[in-house]
Amino acid sequence: MPLTRYQNFVAGQPMANSTGETFEVVNPGTGEVIYEVEVADESVRQAALESAREGFATWSAMTGMERARILNRAVAMLRERNDELAKVEVLDTGKPWQEASEVDVNTGADSLEFYAGLAPALEGNQQDLGGDFYYTRREPLGVCAGIGAWNYPLQIACWKSAPALACGNSMIFKPSEETPLGALKLAEILMEAGMPAGVFNVVQGAGEVGSWLSHEPGIDKVSITGEVGTGKKVMAGAATTLKEVTMELGGKSPLIIFDDAEIDNAVSAAMLANFYTQGEICTNGTRVFVHEDLYPTFIEKVLERTRNNIIAGDTLNPETNFGALISAKHRDLVMDYIRKGVEEGATLACGGEELSPQGVEGGYFVAPTVFTGCTDDMTIVKEEIFGPVMSVLTFRDEDDVIRRANNTQYGLAAGVFTRDIKRAHRVIHQIQAGICWINAYNESPSEMPVGGYKQSGIGRENGAATINHYTQLKSVYVGMGDIEAPF
Ligand code: NDP
Questions:
Q1: pTM value surpassing 0.85
Q2: Rounded Cα gap, residues 80 and 96, in angstroms
Q3: Which of 179, 209, 240, 429 has the maximal Cβ count within 10 Å?
């Protein structure tokens, strides 16, 4: 049977390319090719640009209330079509249905709902200057480009487009080549909800298409979710036309567990922070620092739960709670890191091997892996692995663990578990990271701004603060008297 072929989405509808070039998409949970997608060639790119310019003119002229009504209709449709969309995400990403059906569509819809609420509330201010006065206007930037990673494709498309669209911008979105369908589904839903054609466009392809978006003079902003190295390339491209940038990049986040922590909650957090979405989450707490006095109990519980509670298998089976990595290439990369961990002297306490669950032997599964006896200089402790690999380290002194937690180029996230309220805040205030949790981990409601310190990012997503990253401030000075001139 011929593969289903998907096209780019331009000016409110699918658009065929002229070269006929396509790429294939694989279900990582089985290793099977599931459909093919047309690459955005030159004709598609130019059409997308024109469409986004026209879309911007129409959309930015509408009131915030009008935009909000359309976004809210899309929110309702996303929630109504939850199961269909969750299935798309399971097949594209290899994550378990158990997660996608609860989290992926819902958190995307939440973000659109949050910004739909803010759209009519956008306002400037005015200040009296003793007769004369000035006022400010929050104006949209124009055409924004979004470039997505593959771990939460639909959610990332929503998180980028929600603030952009609420503020009156149009968008050209490029999903990861590995997970292209979610963004197309979002485009269809936005159109059905009444969004004018051209406001949300999807272009498909690999890094080269992302590179075009970064360099293109007709685009006013680029927002990427991806690796630090890719972020640097995008920022260099954006610099050629001085575009605004938002960078949601990688991390190697510390999770610090003090001796007075509620042990079962701390263990649950460490498990979630390393094994949820099979470890493919940017904010994961992959450096787990445990106080020496708590360590024996902590590690016993972590190993017991890792060995007994994780069910890898058919990603569409609701019982499965642990999925497959995004590709064979990524699985091999994760396995290389595991080998390096052993070579450099860490103790492989559990996992460390590839898995072939019955019935889905072709999937790219790696067992949840726990390393103990880790030291700060090991590769597995320093580099982002983006797979189910937990590195456990021990500490005794508070100042020392803060110093070690901060000893990294990354600054995306951090967590602290302790019952001592003063210590919790004292420690978190000294941690160099943009997203921090106290007695929680990886919770990311749309009300809360997220983004990285240091090389983990620039700008923010979610929360009211992100409005500043999708608007520009215009100041208007109004003269009320005569003009005095010396000549
Ligand atoms: P990549 O950096 O490989 O890719 C991200 C996106 O950039 C993809 O759409 C990719 O296209 C595109 N791209 C690749 N090269 C270029 C280029 N030269 N110019 C412009 N765009 C380009 O990241 P992954 O997709 O592998 O995602 C994993 C990474 O994302 C991890 O580092 C993770 O930490 C980070 N991430 C960060 C999050 C955050 O909010 N801070 C959230 C989720 C993930 P293609 O894939 O089609 O080649």
A1: yes
A2: 20
A3: 179
